[in-house]
## 1
Amino acid sequence: MGQRADSIMRWCVLAAGAAMFACFAYVVWTWVPRTDIRAALVGLCAGLCVLGFLWSLWQRRQLCRFADELCRTLDDLIAERRPEAYFPYEDTLTARIQGKFMQYYDLMSEGRRQSRQDKQVIQELVSDISHQVKTPIANLQMFMGILQSHELSVEKRGEFLDTMAGQINKLDFLLQSLIKMSRLETGTFTLHVEKANLYDTIAQALNGIWVRAEAGKITLSVECDHSITARHDAKWTAEALGNLLDNAVKYTPVGGSISIRVRPWQFYTRVDIEDTGMGIPEEQCNEVFKRFWRSEAAAAKEGVGLGLYLAQKIVTRQRGYISVRSAVGVGSVFSVYLLT
């Protein structure tokens, strides 16, 4: 159908050109008195008609070549490959349009890549959550079945109920951690970063671990001038420091020590949290901040592997960062850097 229409259009152009030439020849032959002038004008008109026809053919050929190049470019992009005939530095109409096609293709490719990455993250997250939830739910079901189908003494029943309460608390902690993680990753909360006193923030973080540290006979020490300030959100930064301190208490043996030291620098204020705990192998120091990651050595301790991940996310959102130095059997130092 397209070829037929193109052929009809070509014949229409020829017919129009012939009609114009006939009209011009008739006018010249009628109104010009000298025969030689008549012939010259008619010949000039014929030459112009021929040149116009040739020019239209050349233009049509250029247009077809232009359309073919764009079609090849689109075919390459649809097949998700770079066009072979792409010359981005040429100052031609084809190159400019190809450049726009490439910009659109790059945007679409980035969108597809991000979509695949988001899908993979969601799949990993669902898998991680399923793994973390499976054990406490299985324990609750088991203990509930025992309580329902067996006659137990008051003491034994109390032990089972205490164990179930512990599993429920673990599920609640996991749920709260997942909510915080979701808010951090999706940006559905607002950080109020401002100049604030660090001593007060550290004191707020210590409130959550003080009792457990005393129960484990762990010595706590704080070295922080009351006048030191840094740009941070006091509530969320206390959450991050609290997670670091919680880990320190969890993995420090009875009679150990945890010290907090604050050092203001030119651009950052550094908060060191040092413990005398079990330590982390050097090759695992970069792994500890991953979501749900836990080393085999720490498997016996209660936890879901979200504390350090959340701490890093909170500090990073405030344009700070966290580093760690550790030695197995000696202890660890987690350093938090906040903008001064």
## 2
Amino acid sequence: MTDLRVGVVDVYVIRIVKGRWRVLTLRRGGPGRSPGSWETVHGRIEPGETPPQAARRELREETGLEAARLFSVTVHPFYLHRTGEVQMAVVFAAFVDRDDVALGAEHDTHEWLSPANAAKRFTWPREAEALAHIRKLFPKGEGGVVADVLEME
């Protein structure tokens, strides 16, 4: 039997300066999984934690940044063959006011890129897909017409 579990968060970090979007991309260092791959902030939901709490914690741990505004975006499923479970990643958009990143131990470098270049840079296709959702939901930035439904407290 295959189990289904909500176990991780993906957090897309966005900074808008003079109307231009910049998306944070992180390169995984070694050792660990997928060294050299480019990704967004990603991490496990800890016991007793809600997905928004995990998103804020992972953002802080992996980048040193705090979300000025945090929005839920979508959910992405993926299969973990080692455990035989389908894991759900809850996807968030974090709009930040600073761009001075303090990398955590999992990553060895970062870049702020345009949304198009970030989508190309991400290793996993689902990350480019989620970024497209964010651009559609928030075409002019963090105050899109659905912000009242998606914003986390």
## 3
Amino acid sequence: MFTGIVEELGEVVAVEPLQDASRLTVRGPLVTSDAGHGDSICVNGVCLTVVDSRDGAFTADVMSETLRRSSLGALSAGSPVNLERAVRVSDRLGGHVVQGHVDGTGELQQVTPDEHWTVVRISLADGLARYVVEKGSITVDGVSLTVSAIGPDWFEVSLIPTTLALTTLGAKGPGDPVNLEVDVMAKYVEKLLLAGVRPVTANEEKP
């Protein structure tokens, strides 16, 4: 589990195509400082498992399902990436609960700079729109953000200078793809409501 607070702006060192997969090597001295085989690191919002870690870089295998659902397949040597280690139980939850399971991709439509922040509009697929609400949380390329406005097929977020400077979002422009993860709690609530499950009250015995 992650919080969507990017720890480090890393860089892709190499991308090795495999059969129905890809092997990604990423440089990130901070996130690899205590990383070992089997640890989880979030790369642009995608939870990857460390296969090897040495000399300030780590290697992870990316399966075809992940390549299909995310923008990781478009990465190449030199690409900047947002990195975050898995959260400890004792850590502060600075963003929101992020699984690192990308629901789909969006596309930057507009970037509108202001004096103190920049408003970014991102396209939203029909299958995800119902989970996104104004003032709710969404993860964009691994960054926990608050939805500032929403339309039928888009949403907007307001980015402060720190977010622009310390993540990949500061270098993106119209037409660029981004990984999206909606709030998992919204999906659980929807499933319970569709199933017609009545919550058990404190005075009732569970079966």
## 4
Amino acid sequence: MGARRELDLAHMRAGFTSPVYDAQACFRHVLEALARPGQIQRLDALPVPPAGLGAAQSAILLALADRDTPVWLASALRNGAAGDYLRFHCGCPLTTNTVDARFVVLSTLAELPALDDLDVGEPNFPDRSATLIVEVAELAAGGPLHLRGPGIADEIGLFVAGWTDAATTLIQTNRRRFPLGVDILLTCGDRVAGLPRTVHLSLEGMACT
């Protein structure tokens, strides 16, 4: 885990207005996002995020992170306002290694680590794996990403700004390792869409895999 630093309380952002109610509402939206891959959920009662985190990212972490869920942030965020915010509101340890993290928080898809650098769970406990929370510049229904699988009636399209070949490879490799693997939450402002390990993903002109 990273070294502890003194919290900057003078510039601390507030968390949820109603911690219990808002956390429960956010948790339900996250569950819905993962149960219905590619369907965009809009979060309510968002906190004002610290520098480096999106509003939905902050809400998800306030709802899910605690002292038993190590969080990975890029070093600049870990040692700044975002790291202070999570330590103060969530009490979560901040790790310097992605493989040790239960939540891996990324500012762009370009920062995606390799699957081998993430906790994909164990055969007896596949649910004890990492969740990636990735902020993107734009997230919209319809688009060149085609998703199929559990929770999708037929096929659903999704537009994700900044999508990369590396992201396609990670999603497809991740699905082939099921039941092991990671789950991904794409966030944009107050919106979130889930890409669980069960999803089949293809681009326009490419067969699902």
